[in-house]
Amino acid sequence: MNTAGLSLDNVPEFRIPMGFFLSAPWFGMLAALLMLISPELISSRWHPSMLATVHLLTLGFGAMIMVGAMIQVLPVLSSQPVPAAATLSPWIRGGLASGTLFLALGFLFNQNSLFYIALALLAGVFMLFLGALGVALVRVKSGGDSVFSLRLAALCLLVTVLFGVLQLSTYMDLNWIGYSFERTDSHALLGLAGWGMLLIMGVSFQVIPMFHVAPAFPWWFCRGSSALLFITLVIALLASGAISKAALLMLPLIICFYGGYALYLIYQRKRKLVDYTIRFWQLSFTNLVLLCLVYLLHQLGLSIMPESAQFYLLLGFGFGLGFVVSVMLGMLQKIVPFLMFLHLQRACIHEPGAFMKLPNMRQLLPQSDSKWQYYLHISALATLYLSFFGGDLQYPLLFVAAALLLASFAWLFKTLWQANRRYIESMASITAK
């Protein structure tokens, strides 16, 4: 493991990111349950259950992990901690969890009062988080390639939240705001290709070489791909006509090039040991490249599906579950035991003899748990993809995929909970006098 260039002196208390990580799987389980109960959601992106499922996955699972990761990663990459992280984190986590639940219920029951509560909670939480994160990012004097990408990701998150607030106004009959419902695609594009993509890029620039002894991403690639993706995204959103269409064709090309190059660097790694984090990275980047190619072929008139609505649902699930969630599941298998071991080492500083009691990272989170996580997730993903081509079997296949997703998210919670318990027991053993 290569930790050169990292600052491990200002990492937050372990309970802060772990609180977010332990909360996230519950929303994945809720989304999977909703897919089990209401398989007809696959018929339209506007189905109430589909809207609820998407936001349970993107806000409840995805944003929960991303926020926790940002609070953890930023001080490591830049030596600049997020201000008042210990004080703000419970409020951010609680507001994000409750706001996501109210939003999902609002979609399911179409109640304005639920939307108003969700709006207040989610807007407040994200402004609180982005305010603290913005202060930390401004204080960073000379950030590296990862921090450059994280800054762009934070800006995209800000605009995504703004679009989301305006989007909710269409459900609350606030017509005086004048927001067009057709801008939903802009909200989704900013959240997925902006906030999600740029955040993963920024993290991958550091952690792939660090954890897997792979060649480093060249500086020109890091800065160039992040900046080009951001600029192209802005053009796609602000321009119109042929310019906007050209930018929308450029986006998948940029993303495909990033995914392909990342796969190449992973292949060049020095350690060829079985590592399920690597397999998750390979799965996610393979999904990413294939989805980009399929989208480009579709734009050229070579579609793999006759129905355009179903095609875009396939792309959405593929990007969300096949790429973003795959990355998160893999990273949790590596980052969680690494952070645990780091904090346990620190606890041994004043008690050198306690170093003998330290468990290794694979004892904290066994490889067998990571293996089952990988197999459950890839089985759910494969079955979900098959459901789009299953014809009359679409609903039964979606039911199976949802059951596997439920098992995958439940397994994730079980794995993280047991790892946290081992950490607490080890810390108690080390600090016992």
Automatic annotation (TrEMBL):
Record bears the keyword NADP: no
UniProt keyword list: Membrane, Transmembrane, Transmembrane helix
Transmembrane feature ranges: 20-37, 57-78, 90-109, 115-138, 150-168, 188-208, 220-240, 246-266, 278-297, 309-332, 395-413
Name by which UniProt lists this protein: Uncharacterized protein
